[in-house]
Amino acid sequence: MNWNKTKLFSSLFLLVFFAGCSTVPLTGRRQLSLVDDKTMQQQATLAYRELLNDPKTKVVKGTANAQTVQNVGRKIAQAVESYLQQQGYADQYQFSWEFNLIDDQQVNAWCMPGGKVAVYTGILPVTENEAGLATVMGHEIAHAIARHSSERASNVMAAQGLGVGVGLATSGKSQVTQVLVNQLYGVGSQVALLKYSRNQESEADRMGLTFMAMAGYNPNEAASFWQRMSSRAGGQKPPEFLSTHPSDQRRIADIQKLIPEAMKHYKK
Length: 268
Known about the structure:
By secondary structure, the chain is of the alpha+beta class. The chain has helices spanning 2-19, 37-53, 64-86, 124-127, 130-145, 148-170, 175-214, 220-233, 248-263; strands spanning 21-23, 30-32, 59-60, 98-102, 109-112, 116-120. Strands 3-4-6-5 form a 4-stranded mixed sheet, with helices on both faces. The protein has a two-stranded antiparallel ribbon with strand order 1-2. α1 packs antiparallel against α6 (148-170), α3 crosses α5 and α5 (130-145) packs across α8 (220-233). The longest helix is centred in the C-terminal third of the chain and has 40 residues, at 175-214.
């Protein structure tokens, strides 16, 4: 009986898995897509608005840095939309671009689904110039174009579903066996999700390089930015397989390998 339940569950899971796949622009990678994009964008817009309206959030307006964020963002957005239009992806995306500089010492930036971008002032000393900023914004916008937020949510759903399958398969075993199997599955699934996250970071690096090149920024500046970022971070870091990001050395080496591909799209 337990075997029949597991077999049925596995069949249904595989059916949903293959039905819920989409293709990432530029890289052509197939990804799991079980979460509705429209819902993700609506939630992202609400969260972005709440952040900007929060009394603790200091949005920078009218400064040279704020204008630079706007300019770089618009150039990359135009390049991205032009690329998606040329490649036949335009009807799959709906953008409502916003670019804001936030006064915060976090060395960070991000882009929500739908094109809601925030850059923190803490990262500006590391970007140093427009090309460095384009590296960061191109990378973060690439996460949105690749629908990485939706994919992460889908992977969590899939992992939870597999967990149910493991429970069904071991339900007739002794309690000790069930605990051991579930513990091993838990560790395995967490490491697998971390690997997905590292792969997404690498994919965003590749796409971001191309997007910044399309927007008129030299991709060679990306390696310089990440070298500065690595020097600033310093300190003890976890092993790469237990991290959500590739190691600094791997990331810089991979970017240097990808620069020739991105340079094909570079126009001064």
